[in-house]
């Protein structure tokens, strides 16, 4: 069983990592295209039309690959995570259905109109389509992140003892889940940084090569401005997301910061260290006093609980959950002496059942669990600290770097109109991969930090899998890796070929 869980997680992680290579650029380029075309419509300068069409071609290549890699992910919930889909499908399926029916079709329709409607629509009509395409891309991300945010903070739903499933109670609470909203604005801002860096890097390449200079200069001016605003937004909105994590997922926060013992408020921020999960300590630490307390609690007098204390809290929740589970088992086995009373009890007391279910990893008859098994289950609530610790810090370092880089490019190339600093052009070109690195690390922090939960506090990950064989999962993993690698190679080939060719064709249209 453990191998099936690990393989199923690996399969979903692989497909998610591949898919998320395309999502940030789609979000960023879509909005940049809308801004560029708006400048064209307002100014009447046709070079902005050529810029929109050229960057739009690169957007279309990336969008097609994003669609191809994204569709399979939703099907995996039915193939590899059948019990997850059964248990929380009432809630989780709603935003995914809306994303497919409304946002995805909206975006796809207007992508087609954007690409093929240049000479068939008025300027304002085509501009409207471009903006709707950008809005559709953001709407698509919104509904996906509402679903993911609910997995992190399951609000607006209750457990139904009669159907033995989680059922939706308030769609409004699900949609306006503060964790989901914070994740949305943080994720799309990161996408805007990716789009800005993409345009900036390729434009700097043109200047270094001494070609398409006027085109490249205009692209740098708009991408450096857009990128600086986006990079600042990522930091501000990331701080909000971190604050909500500390409020709703205390164990994740403690693991990210490698806080083993609850420290006196305000807690220091560990700038560097090497966490040792076996020894429950962090070696070679460099700390900044007070900073973590201010970031995590926005106060000077509130503590951030350490992992050891949170494990003790988990033990108490497991013990309370066993009482609730015993009532649930009576109902399930139709052994209840007072069915109505038991149903009413579970409607009011079900929040700890998920913690009791952590014991299923160690024995089937969890009502007979020993203290040792309860201790093991409580400690299993601690995610892997080392990868979380470093993933978060590299991501933050990238965020600070983006602010510095976009500030430099904005000052020298936008304000001073100095495009001759080759060191800055080369630095911008070499920085092209970094937004993707930061985005993937952000995904790792969010998803690895949620473990061992598929739905935080509700459903352990190992209970959500489908009864499939190792061979079936391994075969599908191999198939996904081969297919997605092929798609990625094709995408990179087409992107590089188009970027090297440059906007010559579109600028030729301008001359004609």
UniProtKB/TrEMBL annotation:
The keyword Transport applies. It comes from Candidatus Trichorickettsia mobilis. It comes from the Bacteria. It is a multi-pass membrane protein. Belongs to the cytochrome ubiquinol oxidase subunit 1 family. Pfam families: Cyt_bd_oxida_I. InterPro entries: Cyt-d_ubiquinol_oxidase_su_1. This is Cytochrome d ubiquinol oxidase subunit 1. It is found in: Cell inner membrane. Keywords: Cell inner membrane, Cell membrane, Electron transport, Heme, Iron, Membrane, Metal-binding, Transmembrane, Transmembrane helix, Transport. Its main location: membrane. The chain crosses the membrane at residues 16-42, 54-71, 91-116, 128-151, 189-208, 220-238, 390-412, 424-446, 473-496. The keyword Transmembrane helix applies.
């Amino acid at each position: 069983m453990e191998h099936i869980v690990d393989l199923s997680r690996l399969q979903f992680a692989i497909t998610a990592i591949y898919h998320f290579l395309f999502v940030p650029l789609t979000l960023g380029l879509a909005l940049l295209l809308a801004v560029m075309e708006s400048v064209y419509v307002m100014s009447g300068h046709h070079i902005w039309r050529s810029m929109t069409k050229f960057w739009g071609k690169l957007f279309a290549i990336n969008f097609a690959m994003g669609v191809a890699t994204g569709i399979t992910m939703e099907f995996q919930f039915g193939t590899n995570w059948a019990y997850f889909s059964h248990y929380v499908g009432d809630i989780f399926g709603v935003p995914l259905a809306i994303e497919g029916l409304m946002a995805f079709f909206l975006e796809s329709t207007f992508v087609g109109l954007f690409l093929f409607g240049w000479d068939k629509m008025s300027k304002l009509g085509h501009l409207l389509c471009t903006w709707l395409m950008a809005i559709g891309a953001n709407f698509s991300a919104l509904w996906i992140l509402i679903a993911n945010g609910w997995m992190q903070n399951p609000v607006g739903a209750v457990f139904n003892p009669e159907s033995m499933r989680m059922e939706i109670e308030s769609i409004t609470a699900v949609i306006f889940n503060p964790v989901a909203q914070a994740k949305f604005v943080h994720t799309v801002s990161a996408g805007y940084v990716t789009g800005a860096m993409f345009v900036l890097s390729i434009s700097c390449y043109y200047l270094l090569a001494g070609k398409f200079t006027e085109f490249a200069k205009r692209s740098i001016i708009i991408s450096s401005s857009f990128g600086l605003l986006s990079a600042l937004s990522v930091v501000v909105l990331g701080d909000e997301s971190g604050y909500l994590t500390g409020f709703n997922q205390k164990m994740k926060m403690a693991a990210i910061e490698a806080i083993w013992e609850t420290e006196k408020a305000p807690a220091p921020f560990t700038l560097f260290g090497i966490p040792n999960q076996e020894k429950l300590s962090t070696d070679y630490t460099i700390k900044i006093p007070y900073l973590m307390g201010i970031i995590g609690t926005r106060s000077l007098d509130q503590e951030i609980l350490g992992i050891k204390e949170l494990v003790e809290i988990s033990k108490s929740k497991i013990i309370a959950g066993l009482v609730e589970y015993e009532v649930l088992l009576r109902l399930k086995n139709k052994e209840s002496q007072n069915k109505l009373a038991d149903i009413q009890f579970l409607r009011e007391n079900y929040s700890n059942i998920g913690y009791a279910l952590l014991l299923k990893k160690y024995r089937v008859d969890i009502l007979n669990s020993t203290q040792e098994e309860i201790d093991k289950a409580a400690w299993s609530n601690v995610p892997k600290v080392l990868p979380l610790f470093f993933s978060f810090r590299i991501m933050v370092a990238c965020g600070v770097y983006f602010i510095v880089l976009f500030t430099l490019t904005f000052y020298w190339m936008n304000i001073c109109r100095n495009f001759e600093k080759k060191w800055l052009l080369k630095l911008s070109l070499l920085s092209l991969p970094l937004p993707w690195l930061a985005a993937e690390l952000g995904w790792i922090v969010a998803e690895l930090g949620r473990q061992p939960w598929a739905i935080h506090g509700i459903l352990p990950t190992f209970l959500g899998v489908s009864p499939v064989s190792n061979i079936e999962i391994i075969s599908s993993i191999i198939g996904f890796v081969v297919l997605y690698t092929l798609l990625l190679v094709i995408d990179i080939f087409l992107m590089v070929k188009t970027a090297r060719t440059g906007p010559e064709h579109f600028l030729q249209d301008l001359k004609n």
